Each structure stands twice: as C-alpha cells, then as structure tokens.
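This section describes the prediction task in plain terms. A model, or a person checking by hand, is given the sequence of a single protein chain and must write out its three-dimensional structure as a string of tokens. No templates, partner chains or ligands are provided. The sample shown here is typical of the held-out split.
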Amino acid sequence: MTRRGHAPVEVVVRDAGETDMAAVQAIYAYYALGSLVTFEETAPPVAQMLTRRRASLDVGLPYLAAEADGEIVGFAYAAPYRARPAYRFTIEDSVYVAEAMRGRGVGSALLAALIARCERGPWRQMLAVIGDSANAGSIRLHRRFGFESAGVLRSVGFKLGRWVDTPILQRPLGRGDAEAPSDLTGRNSRARPASPV
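The expected answer:
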C-alpha cells in the first residue's frame, strides 16, 4: 500500500554493508532529532551505527538496506528483545525509511525481507516496539504482516515536550510457540544474548 499520490518505487533489499552506514545514519538522524519514532534524542555518529549493526550480525540476525536508483532509501534490522537467556528466541524489529520515500513501498519490502530472513533462524517471536501511539504508518505496516497488538505502555517516554506511548505488536516466526525450540540450551544457537539486562 502506498500513500495517495505516491508511486511505488522499485527497491532492492540486501544486507547492509559498512559502506552503507553513513546513509543509514542520515536516515536515522532525521527520526532521532525530530520525531517520536525513536526515543533517542540525539543522532548517534556513524561509528555507533556500525557498532549496532555489528551487534545484530554477531548474534546471527539480519541488518538490511533498501536501495533504489543507487541510493539507500531505508534500512531494517532485528535485535535481541532482551538479553536474559529465556528471551533468546524472541527478537525485536526496527524499520526506517527515508522521509522522502515514505508511503512508496520501501517499508513493506524491508519488513517482508526481514521476517523471511528471521524465519530461517531459531527465533519464534518478533516484536515491534513502536514509538508513539499516533504512529499510524508503522502500526499499519506491521498489521499487514501479521503483527497483532500485545498492549501499550502508556507515557513511558518524554520527548519533544510531551509524554509518549509505545504500542507493542507481536507476530510468531515459523512455528511460533506450537512446539519447543529444538535447541533449548542455546549452545548451538547464535540467538543467545551475551550478557544479562
């Protein structure tokens, strides 16, 4: 689905490389500085974005970029939901689209690819922790991909002069909770976080 008057754009979704991270940082900086989509209030430098990318890759999770006409127009990644071992089969997704490209199918392409990649791994639940209950675009995007509401954390953030909610949406990956994971110890699973929260 695209916003009225916005033509869909053809994108290639691929693994984000180190050389993509300056463009990724620029996209993210827009949201960090002027929106409620993320609760960060300053734009992390490229070096920090590289560290975050590496953290996802180190536990076997994807970090993706969407490219259109040779430019990075969005990115998405999965990260462990929480660090304690019992959470090791649950992950959280993040999807960001360049402001000028919103409503043109970039977010859908990214989220579809992210889910497909994560379903190949040991993970069983994917959460979307969405900044701001009024973020209808992100909520709508996730619902299209089978996410259901798991609740709303009320007024847990304060940014841009107001209290901000975080809706939480959830979808199963693969067989979800229909059966126990084959590797209960996490020894052979790169999904196990390294340190407790």
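For orientation: The longest helix spans residues 21-34.
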